[in-house]
Write a structure and sequence with these properties.
The protein has 313 residues and is an all-alpha fold. The protein has one domain (13-305): ADP-ribosylglycohydrolase fold, CATH 1.10.4080.10. The protein is built from 14 helices and no strands. The chain has helices at 13-34, 42-49, 70-85, 90-102, 110-122, 143-148, 156-165, 171-190, 196-206, 223-235, 240-248, 254-269, 276-281, 284-301. Helix 3 crosses helix 4 and helix 8 (171-190) runs antiparallel to helix 9 (196-206). The radius of gyration is 18 Å and the shape is globular.
């Protein structure tokens, strides 16, 4: 099973970096779009918003339009640790997450909070495996590890699982992380030439609980349900916008489901596929942090994908 496609011959470094940026911006705009409808049922969304297709803020967190949530912020915190250390060090990731928690974020999941409190208390970097750790909170913050291991895929699994186990230790969370990372990496490297249909089939044969054929509607934050949701809408739409809008109107954990889809649909459709009206609404500081972090992660971890005198993205 080809879980991690090889770097394409010839490379096209600038195109790869642009697709990587599209994934990061894609997850952020998905977060900002989906936060408005989080925890609502589809009927409630339709009644309140009609078809929710613009970044308007509000929702249960009463956000300003363009504001992101813990999903995007934890990606930035993980990326910050990677850039500062120029390596993956789980203790540095824990400190970066802890610093983020001290910033009084607009939202934080209970499993994340408990894990980070444990890290603060006694330096625990691996939580005990727990049946209640099967949420999507470790997968949603995965993207910087995908970027940092593009040219060294052998590092992906140990780094991705280590950052997850700071707060979430569950076999389905681990499996979901590996699946999302493999699909995201393929989309970044190959764009719309990525064999995602076959990869999804291969992964769901290995982990049948993730099959989008089992998707029945609105769900909670269980990693299995989130993956079913995002794969269903990725498979059954033809654009980044349509995929995100369908997820944002499906109800349940809409912001995180959109973030997971953004990691795949963003690089698959590319920067040109991201709606300009959504990018304009995204917080300028967040967009700037994302653009800088992508550049730094490539220069530090993937120098072969940075051409001499290449423009910044």
């Amino acid at each position: 099973m080809n879980l991690f496609p090889r770097l394409p011959e010839g490379g096209e470094p600038t195109k790869i970096r642009r697709r990587a940026l599209a994934g990061y911006l894609g997850l952020a705009v998905g977060d900002a779009l989906g936060a408005t409808t989080e925890f609502l049922r589809p009927q409630e969304i339709s009644s309140r918003y009609g078809l929710h297709q613009d970044i308007t803020g509000g929702g249960w967190l009463n956000l300003k339009a363009g504001r992101v949530t813990d999903d995007t912020e934890m990606n930035l915190a993980l990326g910050k640790a990677l850039v500062n250390e120029r390596d993956f060090k789980v203790e540095a990731v824990g400190h970066s997450f802890s610093e983020w928690m001290s910033s009084k974020p607009v939202d934080i999941g209970s499993t994340v909070r408990q894990g980070l409190k444990s890290f603060r208390r006694d330096g625990t970097t691996v939580q005990e495996e727990n049946e209640y750790h099967g949420g999507n909170g470790a997968a949603m913050r995965l993207y910087p590890v995908v970027l940092a291991t593009l040219t060294r895929p052998e590092n992906f699994e140990p780094w991705a699982i280590a950052q997850a186990h700071l707060t979430h230790h569950h076999h389905e969370s681990d499996a979901g992380i590996l699946m999302i990372g493999a699909l995201s990496r393929a989309a970044i490297l190959l764009g719309q030439a990525a064999p995602l249909d076959q990869m999804i089939l291969d992964w769901t044969q290995r982990y049948p609980q993730f099959s989008p054929k089992l998707f029945k509607g609105s769900y909670d934050g269980y990693i299995v349900n989130s993956i079913r949701c995002m794969l269903y809408y990725f498979n059954n739409t033809g654009s980044f916008e349509d995929c995100m809008v369908k997820i944002a109107n499906a109800g349940g954990d809409t912001d995180t489901n959109a973030v997971l889809a953004g990691m795949i649909a963003g690089p698959f459709y590319g920067l040109e596929g991201l709606p300009s009206r959504w990018l304009k609404k995204l917080e300028k500081t967040v967009r700037g942090q994302i653009e800088t972090q992508v550049q730094d992660l490539f220069e530090i971890f993937n120098p072969d994908l940075v051409e001499p005198n290449s423009p910044t993205l």
